[in-house]
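User: Please run a holo structure prediction.
Assistant: Happy to. Please share the sequence and the ligand.
User: Here you go; the ligand is zinc ion.
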Amino acid sequence: MTTTTLITVAPTGAESAKADVPALPVTLDELVVTAKECAALGASVIHVHIRDEAARPTLNLGRLRDTVTAIRESTDLIVQLSSGGAVTDPEADRLRVLEAAPDMASCTMGTVNFGDDVFMNRWEFIVDLHTRMQERGIVPEYEIFDLGHLTSLQRLLGKYGLPAGGHVHVDFVMGVPGGMPGTAAALVACAATLADLPAGTTFSATGIGRTTIPVMLASLAAGGHLRVGMEDTVTYARGYPVESNMQLVARAVGFAQLAQRPPATPAEARQMLGLTDRS
Ligand code: KMH
Ligand code: ZN
């Protein structure tokens, strides 16, 4: 029985413009402040996308390295870099993210329509990401945008073996226009399909936009964990823009406490995810 809740904050993403969402953390300083605030509230993992000096999404390796260092110096958070980047990022740049040596990186398990765009994840690219993470000891979070992505994960693990650390953790990204819906029914279907994956596989879930609350409640009810943040949600309630990532983390912590599964500490989260202790 799961007794704690892993809370991941995804503070920035690659899709919202700073001009449209002024509270979005885009500079390194803003990101570090956000990381500290969210860690103090109960987040244990940070899923990181970074921006350039003009606040545009970037996968610049030097900036990624500086970001990993800065978050580690100021918090105990598990640093998970996005290898998804923006839909326009080339595969080579997405693979190079691993050279920044994060604790974790995302690994999306298939191509998905993404609003008016396509988020491309070819099979050979997924294999490359997975095997390079194994070699480097980086723990993946497998991003699942559709039910079939879990079948691809089963195939990946069957052919290429378990990830670094031996534990499998997936994140259901729900409610993307083009992916699975952000509903309790879809979450239950995904959770049931985890029976085809290695015993002990854990999951978190996030619902884009207004699906954030149903997905959060369904995930807690199904024994899952939570991802929240301005990457996925920029409206707190109808007519109320999100003021900060803290607001979203605080709401997730409140729901987790109501479910009698308080937030996992970073040390508990490391143990759960098969990460070695940084100290
Ligand atoms: N920005 C999306 C195209 C990930 O971080 O790995 C991809 C994404 C998934 O956000
Ligand atoms: Zn992301």
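The chain has a mean pLDDT of 97.
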